Amino acid sequence: MLAPSKRRAAAAASEPGVAAIGTLLLEDGHLTQAQLEQVLIAQKRRRGRFGELAVKLRFVSQAALDAALARQYSGQTGLAGPRRWLPDDLVVAREPGSRFAEAMRALHGQLVSRWFGDTPAERALVVCSPDQGDGRSFVCANLAVAFAQLGHETLLIDADLRAPRQHEIFRIRDRMGLSAMLAGRAGMSEVRRIGDLPRLSLLPAGAVPPDPHDLLARGAFDGLLAELAGHYDAILIDTPAARHAADMLPLASAAGAALLLARRDHTRAPELSQLSGELGAAGVTVLGATLNSC
User: Fold this and answer.
1) Sorting pLDDT into bands at 50, 70 and 90, what band is 20?
2) Global confidence as pTM
3) Any domain includes 218
């Protein structure tokens, strides 16, 4: 049974979109009753979201808000039992309480604070790394799930037109996709909503073209990305290994920002430093680097 203060908080926060977050933050000890009431007053004045106002007022941290949002959204997915259809690779969706899921939510908070904004020019980033086997597709897929769980309308693009993997991770057919769109043979219908994962969509790579770099360097990807940015809060782009293909740079240039990925006991520091330098020289904002220990 809730204590009197928590009962009052639940009642006070009974407006749509507020009850779950306000109550969760209170129950987790991140918010006091007095602070909750102040946020509600500020919300009536500014008409903002409860969680965002709580962070702006410095009552809670972005990490605490992300954790509460993840709990809220994971409870609304409509998945029964142990989420049977989800592949093991989608750890954030299958095990939202795991340490890896928490790390992805923390990474989400850092990326949002450094890059994602209200304009279409601040809605896309590439996930890139020097070598094959670094885990780009795995991290990119799980980060996209975290963004979607935390309330962002999210699009994951598989732009690795040499060895695409996202269609395998999400178990969808990949006959058509990004390659067909860039060639002018397909339209927006290639973007697939991911069932049971609200707010998440996927654009698979499609058929592997004979010359991926030529297809990407024509400029069609820039226009496509600009169009898609008008429909999504966040666009995450999976890329080929930088050491083995020149495709990554035009993708990063179109997005404007990049997250570097290193894998424990696999990625060499000089290669990661070189990749960061190449991105910077191309005018791409390097948001930072993350370590994949899986």
Assistant:
1) low
2) 0.76
3) yes
